């Protein structure tokens, strides 16, 4: 029975059943009376069965350890996602690191090993994203005075917040309407000075954002008042990338 169960065991419970069967066989052999004709053969079998019993115990324990690590990793990943949704980046990073460590602790050859492998790659990617999120969050805090100056005014020029990998800056409806109105009025009047002034103001605003992005070393995504993205400033590209 123990040999049969060894051939079909695919879980910690299965290996526990293997262990139980070998334990039962060992106990029976130990009960063979001394001095009986069967005692010598029983002692020889006992050495073999005890070795198999120890192997079954080791495999059962390995399966239990692997299952515990796999289960804990999934729980930690759920916690990390919850922290991430709340922009609690330090806690998210710690949870993702624990999830990755537990997935890596799942031993090859154990039942959870195969389903654990795709999780490892996704958890490592999520960890990198959380680390980037923390960088963006810290960058926004450091750049807040400059962003407040650039986005301030009457009407307010823009609003900003953290995106997963960039600072998200959106032009306000009031400022958008003011710029469009000024440009339309200047065209009707044929006043190139007003047009040049509006263009200069917008360019100054963009230059300020570029400096903020370069200083923070974090991209800035730019959105129109209607929510459509119209460009990204990338420190690596040293310029705006239109959408």
Structure description:
The chain is of the alpha+beta class. The protein folds into two domains: 2-132, no CATH class; 152-242, no CATH class. Helices cover 70% and strands 10% of the residues. It contains seven helices and five strands. Strands 1-2-3-4-5 form a five-stranded mixed sheet. Strand 3 (220-223) and strand 4 form a beta hairpin. Helix 3 (39-85) packs antiparallel against helix 4 (89-104), helix 3 (39-85) packs parallel to helix 5 (113-151) and helix 4 packs antiparallel against helix 5 (113-151). It is rod-shaped, with a radius of gyration of 33 Å. The chain starts with a helix and ends with a strand. The model has no long low-confidence stretch (mean pLDDT 92).
Summarize the structure.
The chain has 243 residues and is α+β, with helices and mostly antiparallel strands. The chain contains 7 helices and 5 strands. Helix content is 70%, strand content 10%.
Distance between the termini: 68 Å
Query: How many E-type strands?
Result: 5
Rounded Rg: 33 Å
Report the order of strands and helices: HHHHHEEHHEEE
Q: How many domain modules?
A: 2
Question: What tags apply to this protein structure?
Answer:
243 residues, 7 helices, 5-stranded mixed sheet, alpha+beta
Which SSEs are present, and which pair or pack?
Layout: H1 2-8, H2 12-30, H3 39-85, H4 89-104, H5 113-151, E1 158-162, E2 167-171, H6 173-189, H7 192-216, E3 220-223, E4 229-234, E5 239-242
Parallel strand pairs: 2-3
Antiparallel strand pairs: 1-2, 3-4, 4-5
Helix pairs in contact: 1-2, 2-3, 3-4, 3-5, 4-5, 5-7, 6-7
């Amino acid at each position: 029975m123990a040999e049969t169960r060894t051939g079909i065991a695919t879980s910690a419970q299965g290996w526990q059943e293997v262990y139980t069967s070998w334990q039962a066989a060992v106990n029976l052999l130990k009960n063979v009376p001394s001095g009986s004709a069967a005692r010598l053969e029983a002692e020889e079998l006992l050495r073999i069965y005890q070795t198999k019993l120890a192997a079954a115990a080791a495999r059962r324990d390995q399966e239990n350890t692997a299952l515990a690590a796999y289960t804990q990793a999934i729980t930690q990943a759920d916690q990390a996602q919850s922290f991430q949704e709340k922009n609690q980046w330090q806690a998210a990073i710690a949870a993702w690191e624990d999830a990755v460590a537990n997935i890596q602790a799942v031993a090859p050859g154990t039942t959870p090993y195969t389903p654990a492998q795709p999780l490892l790659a996704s958890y490592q990617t999520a960890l990198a994203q959380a680390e980037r999120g923390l960088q963006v969050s810290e960058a926004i805090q450091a750049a807040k005075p400059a962003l407040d100056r650039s986005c301030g005014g009457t009407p307010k020029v823009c609003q900003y917040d953290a995106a997963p990998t960039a600072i998200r800056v959106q032009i306000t409806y009031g400022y958008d309407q003011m710029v469009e109105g000024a440009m339309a009025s200047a065209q009707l009047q044929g006043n190139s000075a007003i047009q040049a002034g509006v263009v200069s103001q917008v360019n100054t605003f963009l230059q300020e954002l570029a400096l903020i992005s370069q200083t923070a070393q974090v991209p800035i995504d730019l959105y129109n008042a209607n929510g459509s993205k119209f460009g990204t400033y990338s420190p690596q590209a040293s310029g705006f990338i239109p959408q």
